[in-house]
Structure formats: C-alpha cells, structure tokens
Design goal:
The complex is a heterodimer of chains A (358) and B (108). Chain A is mainly α and 358 residues long. Chain A has one domain. Chain A contains 17 helices and two strands. In chain A, strands 1-2 form a two-stranded antiparallel sheet. In chain A, α3 crosses α4. The longest helix of chain A is centred in the middle third of the chain and has 28 residues. Chain A is globular, with a radius of gyration of 21 Å. Chain A starts with a strand and ends in a 19-residue tail after the last strand. Chain B is mostly beta strands. Chain B has one domain: Rieske Iron-sulfur Protein (3-layer Sandwich), CATH 2.102.10.10. Chain B is 0% helix and 46% strand. A four-stranded antiparallel β-sheet of chain B has the order 2-3-4-9, with no helix packed on it. A four-stranded antiparallel β-sheet of chain B has the order 5-6-7-8, with no helix packed on it. The chains are: A mainly alpha (358), B mainly beta (108). At the A-B interface, α1 and α5 of A face loops of B.
C-alpha cells in the first residue's frame, strides 16, 4: 500500500497560503466523484432535525451528568475519572460537532445549526467565524499544497506535536494566540486571503467574546481560590481533546497531496459505535469530503452506496495507525514519500487531466 | 419589462421532481430551475456566487437551495444569500408555465 519515489534532491514544500508557487489550482470539475444516482444522493442529503436532536441531547445530557459527578466528587479521587469523562465529552465531542454544524448539515433548521455551531466552536476554542472560512477552503482544495489552510500534517510531519496534542498543547496555544491577535483586530495575510472583508469584523468580535468568557471564568477561579471553574470551562478543551486528535489524525495523514481524488487523500476507518458517536461519524472521511452535503447520520449509508468504487476502508483505528505512523516517520526525512491507496479493480479512475497532479 | 424578456422553454413540468432542481444551459450561460414541494417553480443563475459551483448539484430545502460544495444557501424566490459562505445574492429569472411546459424569462 505504501511506496515512494527515489528522491535524493527532493525539496521540502512551502505549505503556507502565502506560498508564491502553490500547487496548480483544481476546479470543482477536476475532482473525482463516485457515481451515485442523483435520487439516491438527494435522499441521503435530506435533512431532518430528529437524528441530530437525539445525538446532541445525548451528548449534552452525558456532559451534564459527568459534570455533576465531577462536582460531587471534587476533592476525592473519584474526580479523576469523572473529569476524564467530562473532558472527553467537552473537548473531543465539541470538536466533531462544530465541524458538522459548520457544514450546516447536522440539523434541518439553520437556527439550530448556528446555535450549536457557536456553542461547540467555543468549547473547541476555535473561532467560529474564522474556521467557517478556512474549512470552506479546505473543502475546495483538500490537501493541495499552498491552497489548503488546514493541512494538519505537512511534510515533514510534526510527530512531537502529535504527542503534545494529547493535552492539546500544539493546537491549543496556536488557537489561543489567534484569539488574542484577532481580539485586537489583526488578521494575518493568510487569513485575509480566505476571510472576505465583510466577515472580518465577526472574527474579531467572536475572539473578544471567547476571551471575555474565559477571562470571567479565570477571575471566578481566582476569587474563589479554586480550580473548579476552569476545570469546567476552558481547561476541558486541553485535557479532553486527546481522543479527537487521535481520531482526526487518520483523516489525511501520510496520504497523497495535490490529487483531485478524495479516495487517495482521505481515509475511511471502521470504528465502534461509541467512537462514532464521539466523532460524529467523521471516520467516513472520504465520503464526507466527496459529498459534504450528506449529514453525519447518513454517512454509513453513503459509504455502503459507493464502497465498490473506493479503496477498502481500514478495519480499525489500529490498522490505520499501523500504516500511518511508519509512513509519517519516513516523511520526516523523505518529502516525496506517501501512502498510495489502491483503487479496487473496476473502480473508475480520475477525471481526465487529473492524474498529472499525482 | 416582460416585453424585453426572451422566454425560453426549459422542460416539461414533470421533468423536475418536487423539492428538486435541474440545470439548464443556454449558449455559454447556465441556469438552475427549481420546483418546490408546494409545486411552485423558480429560476436563478446556475452558479453559486461563492465559488461558481453548479447549484443544480445541490439540494432544495423548502424555498432554499443549498450549494453542494460548502452548503451556502440562497432563497430561490429572491436570490438572497441566506448563509455563509454564500454572501453575494444570486440573480433570479421569472418562470411561467404554459401548456405543461416550464419557461424562463431571460433578459440577456
Ligand atoms: S461554492 Fe457554493 S457555498 Fe461555496
């Protein structure tokens, strides 16, 4: 499954959006889409508030229950498992839910989508009005170097950063420094590239709102001379996002760049129902990228509909990591190395002209 | 106003499903023609104002069209951009039904 070109003269690439020689732009028509009847796709894309209301009620119910246990067990050893569960539901579950709501696909009602989008974005400490635009760009130019602002594992991959992120100590400080910078009205060159001028004030005011809430919680903690308030709001993003980082690393790490075929740049990994609940079915990542208008609850059915035209899904998280980690280690010294996903016999190839990008 | 319109036949009424959209190309231009659940017909320019994606690949939800690429939404009755990343309104075109056929009025 994996391979590499011989590269003694290979160069590391510039992944920033200010790169003056990004990979060639790909149009929407360049991107491969598995054949699926329009009626079936429409059916799968159909919105309903029911599944997400059940999912989000369960999520917030469990969060409240674990929070109550954590509160009641404060100052005892029982608070350790209680906060572990609370943090996981806060940090890891919020991260997959801001994402689904950013697509507007969780609920049929846009108001519900927006309400949960802002709640989950705050919990994940991701500026809602910045990430909406960066994520749109990620979908336009998925893993295209110099065009996609959300390539989490550029080559050489930051393996130490992966470990730090078990306590959110790579992503967290980056997002916090962005919030501070945005709160004083400064968007950098890359951000102004993808956030339209009319939307930039929202980025600034969102950053101020998040920081005001965090500051209020810190002041409360100081006044009460107790860690309790910050253990419930703010810190859970740090001590509870570890599972999200473990799951989301499988999305694209070690796979092909600059290829207009999500089958080659995204992974679909089979997970158990508990992990799928935590991760909002984003383990069907190939399917999500190819047809982003399909809501999270319909992704398993979409997977079944197109699987004959896709590389085999990874049977487990372990299987994905067993491939990913050696490839990433090799990428620390070989910029041309990547995992080549094999398309099944009979699967359709790329659109004309698209193969040149591989 | 309507004298200046060029009325163009698109398709038979039943060629567009309820709560669905089809693409209609004419010359170098492309349009999206919609039918709502209530049986009303509307037409707009065919490409999303965000990144020029064919709206006919999207889905109709009540009186909104959702773009297939980033799920920006437009009101198909007014062309108004209703949610980001769609921020620029869409041009609309009048529709009339004659003898079971859908026609759209084009002014260009
Ligand atoms: S292309 Fe339509 S919302 Fe982005």
């Amino acid at each position: 499954m994996s391979g590499a070109a011989k590269t003694t003269t290979a160069q590391w690439r510039d992944y920033s959006l200010s790169n003056e020689a990004p990979a060639p732009a790909l149009t929407h028509e360049d991107w491969y889409a598995c054949p699926i009847p329009r009626k079936q796709l429409r059916q799968l894309s159909r919105r309903s508030d029911g599944p997400a209301l059940r999912d989000y009620t369960l999520w917030l119910g469990l969060l409240a229950a674990s929070g109550l246990l954590a509160y009641l067990s404060w100052d005892t050893w029982w608070m350790v498992p209680a906060f572990l569960v609370y943090g996981l539901l806060y940090g890891s579950c919020a991260d997959s839910r801001w994402h689904e709501c950013a697509h507007g696909t969780a609920f049929r009602s846009r108001r519900l989508n927006e309400a949960f989008y802002h709640l989950a974005s705050f919990m994940a400490l991701k500026n809602a009005h910045l990430w909406r635009w960066s994520h749109a760009r990620h979908h336009s130019h998925t893993i295209v170097v110099g065009r996609d602002p959300e390539i989490a594992f550029p080559r050489p991959p930051d393996l130490f950063g992966m470990v730090r992120n078990l306590l959110h100590l790579k992503t967290g400080p980056i997002e916090m420094s962005k919030l501070l910078r945005h709160s004083v009205g400064r968007l950098n060159e890359v951000e102004t590239d993808y956030v339209p001028e009319s939307e930039r004030a929202k980025v600034v005011w969102t950053a101020r709102a998040y920081l005001a809430i965090l500051a209020a919680v810190i002041v409360w903690s100081l006044a009460a001379q107790s860690w309790m308030p910050v253990m419930f709001v703010g810190l859970p993003t740090f001590y509870g996002s570890w599972l999200h980082h473990i799951l989301s690393a499988t999305q694209h790490a070690g796979l092909a760049e600059d290829v207009p075929d999500h089958r080659l740049s995204c992974r679909t990994v089979h997970l158990n129902p508990v992990l799928r609940f935590i991760y909002s079915n984003m383990n069907y990542h190939l399917e999500h990228h190819m047809f982003p208008m399909v809501p999270f609850y319909a992704l398993p059915a979409l997977h079944a509909a197109i699987r004959e035209d896709c590389p085999p899904p990874y049977p487990s998280l372990w299987a994905a990591y067993r491939e990913m980690i050696p490839a990433m280690i090799r990428q620390t010294r070989d910029p041309d190395h990547f995992v080549r996903r094999a398309l099944p016999a009979g699967a359709q190839g790329h659109r004309a002209g698209a193969t040149a990008a591989i | 106003m309507s004298d200046r319109l060029d009325w163009v036949e698109v398709c038979a009424v039943d060629e567009i499903d309820e709560e669905d959209v089809i693409r209609f190309d004419r010359g170098t231009k492309t349009y999206a023609v919609y039918r709502t659940l209530e049986g009303a017909f509307y037409a707009t320019d065919g490409l999303c104002t965000h990144e020029q994606i064919h709206l006919a690949d999207g889905i109709v939800i009540d009186s909104l069209i959702e773009c297939p690429k980033h799920q920006g939404r437009f009101d198909i009755r007014s062309g108004e951009a209703k949610s980001a990343p769609a921020c620029v309104n869409l041009r609309i075109h009048p529709v009339r039904i004659e003898a079971g056929r859908v026609h759209i009025g084009l002014s260009d």
